[in-house]
Specification:
The complex is a heterodimer of chains A (330) and B (332). By secondary structure, chain A is of the alpha/beta class. Chain A folds into two domains: 221 residues, 3-Layer(aba) Sandwich (Rossmann fold), CATH 3.40.50; 82 residues, no CATH class. Chain A has eleven helices and twelve strands. In chain A, strands 6-7-8-3-9-10-12-11 form an eight-stranded mixed β-sheet, sandwiched between helices. The two termini of chain A are 30 Å apart. By secondary structure, chain B is α/β, with parallel strands linked by helices. Chain B has a domain of 84 residues. Helix content of chain B is 32%, strand content 23%. In chain B, the strands form two sheets. Chain B has an eight-stranded mixed β-sheet with strand order 6-7-8-3-9-10-12-11, sandwiched between helices. A four-stranded antiparallel β-sheet of chain B has the order 2-1-4-5. In chain B, a hairpin with a 2-residue loop joins strand 4 and strand 5. The longest helix of chain B has 18 residues. Chain B is globular. The chains are: A alpha/beta (330), B alpha/beta (332).
């Protein structure tokens, strides 16, 4: 394995925010601030963090649904940042996205067949209706939808089935990368497992690479080969899934993992309560130095003065000055 | 001596008629809540958890029919006059919703909203009510409470709003706090904070808590007893240890198997529950879980299994009497 398919370098996505008041001051919201990573062929990279950490913006920037401010998104040797609309459209064939709210992402006035077949219409305008229908039915069966549903409308489906429609639409062009933006967060427990299993199975069948964004650490753990932890738009830690859950290096990763409730009453009640206090500060006015220092139990003076670089410590890449001293106890 | 029963529902049934179809949201539910305990209600969306609780407080929609009996402190709540219900809802039973914005008024400052019940129901003066509201904000760990009193809901983060909603529910010192999916919309870190707040309410104020959730992790952290609901009925009830270590209903087992575990590696497939939760206007005959159940017997689509005791505090509604474990992760 390990042929890099998508390579992100120093990606920044900033939004201009207008302040309130008589003399509005323009401010920058740094949603994604200097993120770099590689996605290997056939790999699933999980992206986790609290709300507002920039994970959804990162997902959308990769498929160019929000413009990148600077940096590179290199796919197939070509930098997607700065491409014109037509060049981008051509690349989008290979880069697809699945959204969090499955029903909201489906046009209520189109039938399932039209929704799933639309990418074919767009990229292969000369394909005959019959051929398109064959392909639509094939992918529907692949994702566990009965072919008989082809003429139904989105409102007739449950959340789990609607998410299958979204997955079918994303896969019909046989993309190389699928960005999944919280694809199971809105689903019921039992359905969540069905969709996670389906995504893993489809990855096997089609050899696609997945960027799996979620705040549910257990699902991410389950589906990902590697995990990227984001905080205020910056990468805190990047490591193999096993390593990150067994021995998290960054204090933020440690707190995130510790906060996940354990579905075992004796274990849950035996462990010490040492939760993270407060909530992330505003990305408009982030702390100096290490952005996590205001909530970090280990912060020292250096953390306020100097931005920690992402560096290799043990099995992880970590952005923390104290990574060597901090015991991973989770 | 066992602690006194605070809230008791018997044969509680809630039905709705929409577009000529009858939706059986809750069917013949018995529920008991003792003083100071945390009772968890677990089930998927559409299993009737919220409607069951809303109906107890007379909060269901006008097209609903509620039957059975709900007693609070020995007094019947179903059919009680609105005035009486209002008093109970304000002073005795606090309610926290999933989305804090549904319980906060966007037009009123936090201070006004928190002080209002104290002024109306506790007949406190303006200054005394405000002082107590500030105390309450401090109790739910809101920083700079005096300043927050002047702010409006939209100026607070989601986690902070949920804390304010909990403060509002607790401000009149209720005996019961109903928390309906209080952490579903929150991040794990904030969820942990909210859960420890609920724990504090129970420990410091002795408030009994009914916690509605679909997250078994949350239950393991907090609950004393658990009721598992499926398609409007309670299918298993017991202590938290019964439910996690001695579960007897196939649905409970399936729920537990379908949650990913942080200690599982990628190689362990999740055991999904096949199919979808039933449509409450067309509940399968017999046991509603039978179409999805790996232990299904011939009789399961014939009759509804009664809730029967398997142990002193543990009961299940299932005809299958054998061992579970068929769908288990290990070796399954």
């Amino acid at each position: 394995m390990s042929e890099t398919i998508l390579s992100v370098r120093d990606l920044c996505v900033y939004f201009e925010i207008r302040d309130e008041g008589w003399f509005p001051e323009k401010k920058l919201l740094r949603a994604v601030d200097g993120v770099s990573f590689d996605l290997e062929a056939g790999e699933t990279l999980g992206v986790v963090g609290e709300s507002g950490c920039g994970k959804s913006t990162l997902a959308r920037a990769i498929v160019a649904l929000v413009p990148a401010t600077s940096g590179e998104i290199r796919f197939d040797g070509q930098n997607l940042v700065g491409l014109d609309a037509e060049q981008l459209r051509q690349q989008r064939r290979h880069l697809q996205i699945i959204f969090q709210d499955p029903l909201a992402s489906l046009d209520p006035r189109m039938t399932v067949g039209e929704i799933i077949g639309e990418p074919l219409r767009s990229f292969f305008p000369r394909m005959s209706a019959a051929e398109r229908r064959t392909k639509v039915i094939e992918i529907m069966q692949r994702v566990g939808l009965m072919a008989g549903y082809i003429n139904r409308y989105p409102h007739e489906f449950s959340g789990g089935q609607a998410q299958r429609i979204g997955i079918a639409r994303a896969l019909i062009l046989h993309p190389e990368v699928v960005v999944c933006d919280e694809p199971v967060s809105a689903l019921d427990v039992s359905i969540k497992a069905q969709i996670v299993n389906l995504l893993m199975e489809l990855q096997q069948v089609y050899g696609i690479s997945l960027l799996f964004v979620a705040h549910d650490l257990a699902s991410v753990r389950h589906i990902s080969h590697r995990v990227l932890v984001l905080y205020l738009g910056k990468v805190m830690e990047l490591a193999d899934s096993d390593a990150i859950y067994r021995a998290p290096r960054h204090p933020y990763t440690q707190s995130l993992i510790h906060a996940v409730p354990v579905a075992d009453p004796r274990q849950a009640r035996a462990r010490p309560a040492k939760g993270l206090e407060g909530e992330p500060p505003s990305p408009i006015d982030p702390p100096s130095g290490c952005v996590f220092r205001t909530r970090c139990p280990y912060a020292v003076e250096r953390c306020a003065a100097e931005v920690p670089a992402l560096r290799q410590v043990g099995e992880s890449r970590v952005a923390c000055h104290l990574a060597e001293q901090i015991q991973s106890s989770s | 001596m066992a602690p006194a029963t605070l809230l008791e529902a018997r044969q509680l049934t809630v039905e709705f008629t929409t577009r000529g179809r009858v939706v059986h949201a809750v069917t013949e539910v018995d529920l008991d809540l003792a003083q100071g305990e945390v009772l968890a209600i677990v089930g998927e969306s559409g299993s009737g958890k919220s409607q069951m609780l809303l109906s107890m407080l007379g909060l269901t929609a006008p097209n609903s029919r509620v039957k059975g009996s709900v007693r609070f402190d020995g007094q019947e709540l179903l059919g009680a006059p609105e005035k009486r219900l209002n008093q109970i809802r304000a002073r005795k039973i606090g309610y926290v919703f999933q989305d804090p914005m549904t319980s906060l008024n966007p037009y009123l400052s936090i201070g006004l909203q928190l002080a209002e019940p104290l002024r109306i129901h506790k007949k406190l003066g303006k200054a005394a009510a405000a002082a107590q509201a500030v105390e309450m904000l401090r109790a739910v760990h809101i920083s700079e409470p005096e300043q927050r009193m002047r702010q409006y809901p939209h100026q607070l983060s989601g986690g902070m709003r949920q804390r304010v909603a909990i403060a509002m529910a607790l401000v009149c010192g209720p005996e019961i706090l109903i928390a309906d999916e209080p952490t579903t919309a929150l991040d794990v870190t904030v969820q942990a904070q909210v859960l420890s707040l609920l724990r504090e309410a129970r420990e410091r104020l002795g408030t009994a808590v009914i916690l509605v959730t679909h997250d078994l992790g949350v239950i393991a952290e907090l609950a004393d007893r658990v009721n598992v609901m499926y398609a409007g009925r309670i299918v298993e009830k017991g202590t938290v240890e019964d439910i996690f270590y001695r579960r007897r209903h196939p649905y409970t087992e399936a729920l537990e198997n379908s949650i990913p575990d942080l200690s599982d590696s990628r190689a362990t497939p999740l055991v999904a529950i096949e199919g979808n939760p039933p449509d409450l206007s067309a509940v399968p005959a017999g046991c509603a879980f039978h179409p999805r159940c790996p232990y299904r017997l011939a009789m399961c689509d014939q009759a509804v299994p009664p809730l029967e005791a398997v142990d002193e505090n543990h009961s299940k509604a299932c005809f299958y009497q054998g061992e579970l474990g068929r769908g288990a992760k290990a070796g399954g």
